[in-house]
Amino acid sequence: MSEIVDQLAELTGLRDRDTLDVSLVTSIRDLLQPGSVAVHRVVGDAGDERWLTRAHLDVADVAARADSSWADPRSLPMLAERPEWRRCLQAATEVELRGSDTTLLLPLASDSGVIGVVEIVTRQPLTDEIKRLLIGVLRIYRNVQGLLDYSERDTLTGLLNRKSFDETFYKVSAAPSPPIADQAGGRRHGAAGGYWLGVVDIDHFKLVNDRFGHLIGDEVLLLLSRVMRSCFRFYDQVYRFGGEEFVVLLRCAGEDDARAALERFREAVRGYVFPQVEHITVSVGFTDVRHGDSPNAAVERADRAVYFAKNHGRDQVRGHAALVREGLLEDDKKAGDIDLF
Ligand code: GH3
Ligand code: MG
Ligand code: MG
Fold first, then answer.
1. H-run or E-run covering 42
2. Which of 94, 298, 122 is nearest to 198 (CA)?
3. 230, 178 in Cβ contact below 8 A?
4. Looking at 106, 121, 152, which one is the last position of a domain?
5. Are 304 and 223 part of one and the same domain?
6. Is residue 176 part of a domain?
7. Is 244's C-beta closer than 6 angstroms to any atom of ligand 1?
8. What is the tens place of the pLDDT at every residue in 78-114?
9. Is 81 a catalytic residue?
């Protein structure tokens, strides 16, 4: 009993969503000593969803293993390739598979629905009492995730908020870059990979509010956030910084890839038909994230590229480094703390 309380205290003490799944499998392993336990989450675009194993512990493992957070989605198994997992997910119900071992699949829910499955392999089938205990642990997990979402997400769009940006930014600017997957899911040779920061500002958004009112303006922000979410990979982080300024933290092999991803997004916005308003465009500035960078310094570089785009016709993507190379921007000229847009 005291062990259960300890595990729950551990789980509810977490403030970092990245470690939540590892902590969950570790708790279940310590409580039940199963043959293996894993958390598989659904990632990827609607219609092309994949399974990403976020944490997996075998009985002999010291630490949990996981798929690379930077896996190319196309290298991951499709939903249909794991029919039992899919059944558990879609029916939001427990699935038990009996063979020489027993596999129990439990739906992993968040406030926005079922987001994955927990897979527990044991020698003997688990008793109803143990299953009830597990379901209780998963409800606590869901509550913790809900609290994290509440403090880290923007209420209008559901995107991450500014508060969570600084924390993630410091993590990526301090860490050595992990290798990046190429289209076939293997490592891309010769490309160290890195992080890129894109700042997105809607063009003439004041006019949208003036013509259609704030409620319609808010709807545009919500729909734009969906376009943004669907344009980037599951591991790219998308933020709303308040107002009509959005930020994306991209993992890309190089400047050209970052530019191409942001161009794809700009084109997608251009082609999207918003109710009533119909068409909007965005100006985008981007920069590389440098080792030891601060969030403010990087955002300022990207902001200056946005400012340049605004002054040169809007509806375009501009890279800070290219502007500096071309002599159109000075590298360390300080724009100050004023809000440019
Ligand atoms: P520019 O092309 O130069 O960016 O022109 P702009 O009109 O978009 O100018 P700016 O970016 O300075 O405008 C920001 C406007 O966005 C001001 C405000 O009317 C609107 N806005 C900011 N936050 C919100 C919000 O939460 N909801 C709505 N509806 N409008 C917002
Ligand atoms: Mg604007
Ligand atoms: Mg603005």
1. strand 36-43
2. 298
3. no
4. 152
5. yes
6. yes
7. yes
8. 999 999 999 999 999 999 999 999 999 999 999 889 9
9. no
